[in-house]
Specification:
Cytochrome Bc1 Complex, Chain D, domain 2, elongated, 11 helices, binds heme C
Length: about 290
């Protein structure tokens, strides 16, 4: 409740006239040092507002008379790095792989670009170090679906696999179960045969079933997976006589694939990455351990 402003008898300072249940407040001035610091801060803020981006203006904003922009700074830095690397990257793009390998400094630059490019673009699907996962081939294993020469890998990277790119690699496998080409018992039999190719035969598989499976294989699968089940790179049909499996080595996984193939997609990179980066990636993948 406001009361009268009066002089406090002890300090000689006026009261503010505010009274809270008998407690009154002295009207002491702000300390000078505090007041001036505060005013300097306000002035500083005004100067800052004028110099730097500050006030939102609908769809735009006040850019500040200094034109400062951290985004432009990043763009400048990136452009500077790109310019510094341009010589090396142009050389990687222009020279054949043998020539790159023959120049230690160039090879090292390509390996670095490949390692970083792989971590940024490929690792989510293919795993660290190209270890692979179900549905995503192990790139270090040397069990190539489409080919393991560095030129094959480069082509795979440029156009992808079932990617929609006009030059994409496209491998098809019929939907033996889903389209009723084979009956469920036939699929079980051919899966038993495939398990012998995987060198992990089903223990209680009847010999007659495995034999029937082999006959079904000869009839339905040989055209793509081959007489000796070594696969066919022209068609992108993986080797079945192998211990490396795109879709896993368990019998259920084999049955699932024969019933309804997954037909995985690998993106095309020629629109997203420049030629030198793709070549660096091809070298890196080739040198993971499985290159031919
Ligand atoms: C979205 C997931 C995905 C990404 C990202 C991806 N890949 Fe793939 N990649 C696949 C799939 C799926 C296949 C297998 C396709 C098939 O069934 O033939 C594959 C196949 C490949 C093959 C062919 C392997 C062979 O045996 O012939 C190479 C080489 C390859 N990828 C390299 C890369 C590189 C290098 C990158 C990064 C620039 C990359 N991939 C990014 C999914 C991906
Ligand atoms: C027209 C060609 C074609 C025919 C015919 C074909 N396949 Fe395939 N097969 C493929 C292709 C391409 C892939 C890889 C497809 C994918 O990514 O789904 C594949 C993948 C597989 C896989 C997975 C291999 C792995 O590494 O995980 C198995 C198992 C398989 N086929 C079994 C069969 C069996 C059994 C038959 C016959 C009943 C058969 N295929 C007929 C083309 C074919």
């Amino acid at each position: 409740m406001p009361t009268k402003i009066e002089k406090d008898s002890l300090t000689g300072t006026n009261t503010t006239g505010h009274d809270w249940d008998g407690v009154r407040e002295l009207d002491n001035p702000l300390p000078k040092w505090w007041l001036y610091t505060w005013l300097v801060c306000i002035a500083w803020a005004f100067v800052w507002f004028v110099l730097y981006p500050s006030i939102p203006l609908g769809t735009t904003y006040w850019h500040g008379v200094l034109g400062a922009s951290t985004r432009a700074e990043v763009d400048r830095d990136v452009a500077a790095v790109t310019a510094r690397r341009a010589g090396v990257m142009n050389k990687i793009a222009a020279e054949p792989y043998d020539a790159i390998r023959a120049q230690p400094a160039l090879l090292e630059a390509a390996q670095t670009a490949g390692r970083i490019g792989f971590a940024n673009n490929c690792q989510p699907c293919h795993g660290a170090g190209g270890g692979g996962a179900i549905g995503y081939p192990a790139l270090a294993a040397g069990a190539w679906i489409w080919g393991g020469r560095v030129e094959d890998i480069e082509l795979t990277l440029q156009h992808g696999i079932r990617s929609g790119d006009p030059d994409a690699r496209i491998g098809q496998m019929p939907r033996f179960g889903a389209d009723g080409i084979l009956t469920a018992p036939q699929i079980e039999q051919v899966a038993d045969y495939v398990m012998t190719l995987y060198q992990t035969p089903r223990k209680d598989a009847a010999e007659a079933d495995v034999k029937a499976g082999a006959a079904l294989y000869a009839e339905n699968c040989v055209a793509c997976h081959g007489e000796n089940a070594k696969g066919n790179r022209e068609l992108g049909a993986p080797a079945l006589a192998s211990r490396v499996h795109l879709y896993g080595g368990a019998r259920e996984q084999v049955v699932a694939q024969i019933t309804q193939p997954r037909l995985g997609v690998m993106p095309a990179w020629n629109q997203r990455l420049d030629a030198a980066t793709i070549k660096s990636l091809a070298l890196y993948v080739h040198d993971l351990g499985g290159g031919e």
